[in-house]
Design a protein that fits this description.
44% of the residues lie in helices and 17% in strands. It is of the alpha+beta class and 500 residues long. α4 packs antiparallel against α5. It is globular and about 70 Å long.
Length: 500
C-alpha cells in the first residue's frame, strides 16, 4: 500500500533496515522490535529499535489534511504546516512580549481591512488605502522581533538532516533524522512547537503560499488541468479542492482562524509519534511523558461527514492553453482500507506504472502516439473514497482523441479478458518489492508505522500488507474493473493546445 511516497526519496541517505526477502515475507522479527504506548492525553507513540548506527528518524503524524479545511479557509492545513516552523514563545523571537503586542496590532488592523474589502463595490476606497498602509506598517513592526528559521537552525546545528514537513489531503507529517543522543532535544523542541506555537510572520507567509499556488498550479497548465479534473469529479467531497486552497481564501487568512484550526486538530489523540533507529523504547516513553504529556487532551475531531454521491454519468472538462496537450481519465474507487484496494493498485500498476506497463508499451514504445503515460491510485488522497486516474501526454503530431481511444480500449479489455496468471504474478512481485523497499530506511519505516496506525488503528497491519497483495487474482482484477471502471463512473479531462 503506497503511503507518503513523496517522502521516501529523502530516506535514501539514511540508515537502511534489514528486511526479509520478498519471497519469504516473514516480518515476525521486525514486528517484535516494535514497542508502543499511549499517554494519558491520548498521544500514541510507536518505537522500532534499530541499533546498527547511532541515528534515528522521527515522524510526527497529524491526522489532518486539506480535506479538513474549513469553509472560506481552504488550504489552512497547509498554511498551518508552514506556521509550525515559525517557533514558540521562547524560540524565534528577540522579545516575545513586544512581539505579541505587535502581532495583536496586526490582527486588529487586518480585521478592519478584511471587513472593508468584503463590502466589495460599497467599500470606502480612502479607508481601504489608509488600512492597507497601516497594515503594511504593522507587519514591519512585528517582523522586527523575529529570529528567522530559528527552529531549523538549532536542529541542523545538532546534526539534523531531512528537516521537512508535508501536507496531503488526509494528513500532515513533520520529519527529521538526528543522532540518537539528540532524542531529548527533539522531544523538547517538537512538543514545544505544538504546545506553545506562535504564528509569527503569518501575513507574510500567506504571500509565500499565494506565490506557491501561482507557480505550482495556476501557471502550470498540466497541474491546472488535473486540478480541474478533481473539482469536476468531486461535486460534494472536499477532495475536489486543491491542497493549497483557493487564492481568495489564502489572501484572507487570519491568525484567529489558524489558531482555532490548530486547537481543533493538533491535539494528542489526533497525533502519532513514530521513531525508528538507535533508541530504547522505555527512554522514549519516559521523555514523551515529560514533554508531550504537558499538552492537554481534547475531543478527537470528527472525520469529514460529506460523502460524494454516486456519479450517474460521464463528466468532461476541457481547458485550452498554448501548451502541450494532455488527456486524463479518472474513476471513483473506494478508500485505501477497502478490501478491493490491493486490486485497484494492481490495475494501476498493470496499466501505467513504469516502462513495463501496458499503456507505456502500447502507446509510447509501439504506437509512438504518446511521450508519457501514468496511472495513479489513491488520488488526491485515500482516507475516503477517491480516484484512480490515468494521464497521457500525446507525442508530437498526435492528439488527445487518439490517446483516449487507446486508453479506454485497454480498460475495456480488463473487463472482458482475464489477465494471464503469470502477468498477475509479475504485478504482485513488483508490488511486494516496492512495499519492502519502502521499509528499508528508518524514515520509510516510521512513515509506514504511523500511516498504518492512523488508517487501520493498528500499526501491525503494516506487516499484513504482503498477504493482501498476495491475495489478488486475475478474477479480482476483472471484477473490480467491471465494478468501478465504467463510463458513468468516469471523469475525462483534456488540455487542448491553442496558439498563444
Amino acid at each position: 500500500m503506497k503511503r507518503s511516497s513523496f517522502w521516501l526519496a529523502a530516506a535514501a541517505c539514511l540508515v537502511l533496515l534489514t528486511v526479509p526477502a520478498v519471497s519469504g515475507y516473514d516480518f515476525s522479527e521486525l514486528e517484535e522490535s516494535v514497542s508502543e504506548t499511549t499517554l494519558d492525553n491520548g498521544l500514541k507513540i510507536i518505537v522500532m529499535e534499530r541499533h546498527d548506527a547511532p541515528v534515528a528518524s522521527f515522524v510526527t503524524f497529524v491526522n489532518v489534511g486539506g480535506a479538513d479545511d474549513p469553509k472560506e479557509y481552504t488550504g489552512l492545513a497547509h498554511m498551518f504546516e508552514h506556521m509550525a516552523f515559525k517557533g514558540t514563545t521562547t524560540l524565534g523571537t528577540t522579545d516575545i512580549d513586544a512581539e505579541l503586542k505587535a502581532m495583536a496590532a496586526e490582527d486588529s488592523i487586518w480585521a478592519e481591512l478584511r471587513a472593508e474589502r468584503k463590502k466589495g463595490l460599497r467599500a470606502d476606497s480612502t479607508r481601504l488605502a489608509e488600512l492597507e498602509a497601516a497594515f503594511d506598517k504593522a507587519i514591519e513592526d512585528a517582523n522586527q522581533y523575529v529570529e528567522a528559521n530559528a527552529f531549523d537552525h538549532i536542529l541542523e546545528k545538532e546534526g539534523g538532516v531531512g528537516i521537512n514537513a508535508g501536507t496531503g489531503k488526509d494528513q500532515t507529517s513533520y520529519i527529521v533524522s538526528l543522532p540518537s543522543n539528540k532524542l531529548e532535544l527533539w522531544m523538547a523542541m517538537e512538543s514545544e512547537r505544538f504546545l506553545n506555537p506562535v504564528l509569527r510572520e503569518m501575513y507574510r507567509e500567506r504571500n509565500v503560499i499565494a506565490e506557491e499556488r501561482l507557480q505550482v498550479l495556476e501557471n502550470n497548465p498540466i497541474m491546472r488541468t488535473i486540478d480541474a479534473m478533481a473539482s469536476t469529479a468531486f461535486s460534494a467531497h472536499p477532495y475536489g479542492i486543491s491542497i493549497v486552497g483557493h487564492m481568495s481564501d489564502i489572501r484572507n487568512y487570519n491568525r484567529d482562524k489558524a489558531l482555532e484550526f490548530y486547537k481543533t486538530y493538533y491535539i494528542p489523540s489526533n497525533m502519532i509519534l513514530a521513531i525508528v533507529g538507535d533508541v530504547k523504547p522505555q527512554e522514549v516513553f519516559k521523555l514523551a511523558e515529560k514533554y508531550w504529556g504537558r499538552i492537554p487532551s481534547g475531543p478527537k475531531p470528527e472525520p469529514v461527514a460529506t460523502v460524494e454521491p454516486p456519479q450517474k454519468g460521464e463528466k468532461r472538462v476541457t481547458l485550452h492553453d498554448p501548451a502541450q496537450p494532455l488527456f486524463g481519465v479518472a474513476y471513483h474507487v473506494p478508500q485505501g482500507t477497502h478490501p478491493d484496494w490491493p486490486v485497484i493498485e494492481a490495475i494501476s500498476d498493470y496499466l501505467g506504472e513504469g516502462r513495463t506497463s501496458l499503456l507505456y508499451k502500447n502507446l509510447v514504445k509501439e504506437k509512438k502516439i504518446a511521450s508519457s503515460v501514468g496511472v495513479y491510485a489513491g488520488w488526491p488522497g485515500n482516507k475516503y473514497p477517491c480516484l484512480c486516474f490515468a494521464y497521457v501526454l500525446p507525442a508530437t503530431g498526435h492528439t488527445n482523441e487518439e490517446c483516449e481511444e487507446q486508453v479506454l480500449a485497454e480498460i475495456e479489455k480488463l473487463k472482458n479478458e482475464l489477465i494471464p496468471v503469470e502477468e498477475v504474478d509479475k504485478i504482485k512481485a513488483r508490488a511486494k518489492a516496492s512495499f519492502v523497499n519502502g521499509l528499508r530506511s528508518n524514515l520509510g519505516m516510521a512513515f509506514q508505522l504511523s500511516g498504518f496506525q492512523n488508517d487501520y488503528g493498528d500499526w501491525r497491519e503494516l506487516f499484513r500488507e504482503l498477504d493482501r497483495i498476495n491475495g489478488v487474482t486475475s478474477e479480482d482484477i476483472q471484477r473490480v474493473a467491471k465494478q468501478y471502471f465504467t463510463e458513468e463512473n468516469r471523469t475525462v479531462a483534456k488540455l487542448n493546445t491553442v496558439e498563444g
